[in-house]
Amino acid sequence: MSFLKISNLYKNYGQVEILKDINIEIDKGGFLVLVGPSGCGKSTLLNTIAGLEPITSGEIAINGKSVAGLHPSKRDIAMVFQSYALYPNMTVAGNIAFGMEIRGVPKDERDKAIKQVSDILQIGHLLDRKPSQLSGGQRQRVAMGRALVRDPQVFLFDEPLSNLDAKLRVDMRTEIKRLHQRMKTTIVYVTHDQIEAMTLASKIAVLKDGILQQFGTPAEIYNSPANMFVADFMGSPAMNLLNCRLEGGAGSSLSVILDRPGDQPLALPIKLANGALGAYAGKEIIFGVRPEALTDPDGADRNAKSIAEGECLIEVVEPAGSDTFAVTKLGGKEVVARLRADAAIHAGQKTKLAFNLDKAVFFDPKSQLRIA
Amino acid sequence: MSAASQDVATRNSIFVRAIIYVVLILFAIYYLLPLYVMVVNSLKPLDEIRQGNMLALPKQWTIAPWLSAWSTAQIGVQPVGLKPYFINSVLMVVPAVALSTILGALNGYVLTKWRFKGDNIVFGLMLLACFIPFQIVLIPSARILGLTGLAGTITGLVLIHAIYGLGFTTLFFRNYYEAFPTELVRAAQIDGASFFQIFRRILLPSSGPIIVVTVIWQFTNIWNDFLFGSSFSGFNSIPLTVALNNLVNSSTGVKEYNVHFAGAILAALPTLIVYIVSGRYFVRGLMAGAVKG
Question: Which residues cross the membrane (chain B) (predicted)?
Answer without folding.
Answer: 14-33, 85-109, 121-142, 154-177, 198-220, 259-277
